[in-house]
Design the sequence.
């Protein structure tokens, strides 16, 4: 994906330690927000986002429709942010359960991508292949509808990286003739 060049737009203005003013200062390799009072450096790192790719028996992909916010009415592969103290696999299962009412088993990482579409919040997204082990789809949390879609009939998506990921899924599926993405045919790694 495209690298976002510096300088970054300043998002934080006060030191979290002492309340002093934060300003960008040049260090060896880049600008960093530095407290003018105590010298604290506020490192700006991407947040980890997690998403789970789930297909039904017909090989259709589960998507959720977002409610509220700037992506209202647009669809996405069910996703969320990892909590600071949360294991990445557990966090993925939790987010998926909150948004779709489905309990999943993680099979493997499908892809990892940088998300730069929101300048206020860069993330690293991890898309897992997963399969449903319990529950019926019901929208919750940030979603108001969940539905399965064939890969060639995907509705309007909220996030550019979901486009990339779905294109990868299409390629993988067509390369493997039938479907190696079907839950029963995904090799489980331990
Ligand atoms: Zn400070």
Sequence:
């Amino acid at each position: 994906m495209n690298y976002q060049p510096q300088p970054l737009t300043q998002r934080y203005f006060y030191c979290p330690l002492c309340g002093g003013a934060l300003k960008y200062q040049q260090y060896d390799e880049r600008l960093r927000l530095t407290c003018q009072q105590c010298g604290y450096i506020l490192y700006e790192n991407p947040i980890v986002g997690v998403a789970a790719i789930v297909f039904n028996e017909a090989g259709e992909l589960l998507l959720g429709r977002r409610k509220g916010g700037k992506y209202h009415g647009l669809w996405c592969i069910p996703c969320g942010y990892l909590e600071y103290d949360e294991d990445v696999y557990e966090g993925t299962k939790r987010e998926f359960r909150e948004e779709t009412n489905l309990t999943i088993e993680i099979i493997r990482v499908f892809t990892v991508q940088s998300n730069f579409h929101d300048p206020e919040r860069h993330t690293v997204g991890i898309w897992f292949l997963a399969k449903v082990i319990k529950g019926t789809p019901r929208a919750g949390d940030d979603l108001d509808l969940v539905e399965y879609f064939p890969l060639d009939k995907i509705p309007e998506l909220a996030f550019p990286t979901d486009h990339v990921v779905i294109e990868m899924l299409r390629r993988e599926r067509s390369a493997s003739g039938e479907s190696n993405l079907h839950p029963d045919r995904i090799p489980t790694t331990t």
